[in-house]
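Lab meeting prep.
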Amino acid sequence: MRLLVVNTGSSSLKLRVLADGDELLAQADHEWPGGDPFPAGALTGLPAVDAVAHRVVHGGEAFRAATWIDAEVRSRLEQLTSLAPLHQPRALAGIDGTAAALPGIRAAACFDTAFHATLPAAAAVYALPAQWRERWTLRRFGFHGLSHAYASRRAAELLDRPYDDLRIVSCHLGAGASLAAVAGGRSVDTTMGFTPLEGLVMATRAGSVDPGLLLWLLQQGHLDVDALADGLEHGSGLAGLSGTADMRELLGRDDPAARLALDVFVHRLRGSIGAMAAALDGLDALVFTGGIGEHAPAVRTATAAGLGFLGVRLDAERNAAARADADIGAAGARAASLVVSAREDREIARQVRALA
């Protein structure tokens, strides 16, 4: 089965054509500014495919595994837009655009939330009034599931150990950032929640903030809802602390704001890794993936420096040289440490082939 994997971002469109065995036959990346229609001719030059596979951020409670898309499925995905207003419309536009360009080719949806459908109630349920939770389906969904699923599975392959026997903390660190605690191949805890705002400090997102602080800003009239939402999504995180959302720029600076941003980022990251390890009752492997996870050895070094109590120790030379799918742990360390290239396309392909 030749698959076209469609990954729609807030300003980009990434296309990958994979053959059996995950051989990459073709790829194309396009700029796709928000609000613009699906790029005309985006599929031009790509080889013929048997099916299309779409990354969809939110599957809600209804979609807990990959599914073929029909009119009913598409309608239900559109109904979830309020839960992911930045991402869901883009995925729907990608579904419609490729369907128009490739009539008669079946398409599937694969969900970032689905990997976390296995969260136990203790990890998924918010301590909110039962009436609220039941009426509006208020729970922790988690995100980046396709990345966490691939990174944790690939880590087991690199370690040549059974996936089902490992306790893994997967760190997806990019513009968006989250952790997953993976036990026996299942997500048992994660840092993102009802929305992708919860959890770690990110490029422009605040991560977890005292809800009382946000209520105070609203109640005192300092901000309205729209200004608060914009600030939390686009003006917080590394950008809010330092003036830049680019980790590469931060690492090249030596000023108080840059140092503060890095310290806050790493402090929250270390603490959350510890929490994930507690959910696993220990740690066998720590995995870094995503743009920062793969390309910022200094961040990996700073993070691991506070995790010796979990058995994490890095080899300085291997960490500095690592680029993709590499073991960066020190000899004799109780827990393995790895860098894994983010390949959501491979996880998407695996899930769709399981449907066929």
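Slide two material, second protein:
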Amino acid sequence: MYNDIKEKAAEVSGILKIVSHEKRLWILCLLLEGEKNISELHDTLEISQSLVSQFAIKMRDQWVLESRKEWKEVLYRLKDTKMLELMKAIKTIYC
């Protein structure tokens, strides 16, 4: 039992570090609604477009988000069902 927890502790800790940042959390909440590009995220967030892009790229590199290119824009979405369920739980509890 404890081996399972030990194996997952680093993964869960990494996810919680991502979610613990206010703006990254806000991005994840916005992506609950579906795919969004950087401009759409920027319109809601109160930070520069370049910072939104940096956050999105970092979360993509950490396997939290995935992206796809459509014409000239990059669309981001939550990567897996675990993150989707976590964000739904956070939204249910706090929003």
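Talking points for slide two:
The longest helix spans residues 2-19.
The chain has one domain: 2-94.
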